[in-house]
UniProtKB/TrEMBL annotation:
PROSITE patterns: NUDIX (PS51462), NUDIX_BOX (PS00893). It is an enzyme of class 3 (hydrolase). Pfam families: NUDIX. The lineage of its organism: Eukaryota, Viridiplantae, Streptophyta, Embryophyta, Tracheophyta. Its cofactor is Mg(2+). The keyword Ribosomal protein does not apply. CDD domains: NUDIX_DIPP2_like_Nudt4. Its EC number is 3.6.1.52. SUPFAM superfamilies: Nudix. It comes from Stylosanthes scabra. Transmembrane segments: none annotated. InterPro entries: DDP-like_NUDIX (IPR047198), NUDIX_hydrolase-like_dom_sf (IPR015797), NUDIX_hydrolase_CS (IPR020084), NUDIX_hydrolase_dom (IPR000086). Keywords: Hydrolase, Magnesium, Metal-binding. This is Nudix hydrolase 16, mitochondrial.
Length: 173
């Protein structure tokens, strides 16, 4: 059993103008493509997706942003709870609005959500994590991930990640 515990409930959930505020990330790592793949150009980027207990398709880790944490802390917490990974937030990728069919409540009766998504460079995969009994991890190439993501807004976030990553390689920062 994991010593980490997932947060539950909505008593600390943040809302803004009828939207439930969400934090999430695009977890990524570099996989060397050859024996001497020390440069960024010699490495392939893989992204981590998780399954959803509520249906088909894969997702990025994401969840409610709570009042006692920054949005970056919420994104890293969700990566630990849902995907069992720790890493470094590299950059903000953007806000993505969507409608949740399963998370309608008194503050967001229409299920409107606004997700802040970040690029997360994975440094550690945990053997035990809070949601491991209901989640499986899958490392995929970006092209494969695009075809596997359940939601269009997550595909948009992955496109933004790809543009960010390409700019990072070109600029060298």
């Amino acid at each position: 059993m994991s010593e980490l515990v997932a947060r539950t409930g909505r008593h600390q959930q943040r809302y803004e103008n009828g939207y439930r505020l969400i934090a999430g990330c695009v977890p990524f790592r570099y996989k060397s493509s050859g024996d001497c793949g020390n440069s960024d150009s010699g490495k392939n980027v893989e992204v981590l997706l998780i399954n959803s207990p509520s249906g088909p398709g894969l997702l990025f880790p994401k969840g409610g942003w709570e009042n006692d944490e920054t949005v970056e802390q919420a994104a890293t917490r969700e990566a630990i709870e849902e995907a069992g990974v720790r890493g470094d937030i590299m950059d903000f990728l953007g806000y993505y609005e969507f409608r949740s069919k399963t998370h309608q409540d008194e503050f967001s009766p229409e299920g409107l959500c606004k997700a802040a998504m970040f690029a997360l460079l994975v440094k550690e995969e945990l053997e035990l994590w809070p949601e491991q009994s209901t989640r499986n991890r899958s490392w995929l190439a970006v092209s494969e991930a695009l075809g596997s993501l359940r939601h269009a807004w997550m595909r948009d976030a992955l496109d933004c990640f790809c543009k960010w990553h390409e700019d990072k390689l070109v600029s060298g920062t």
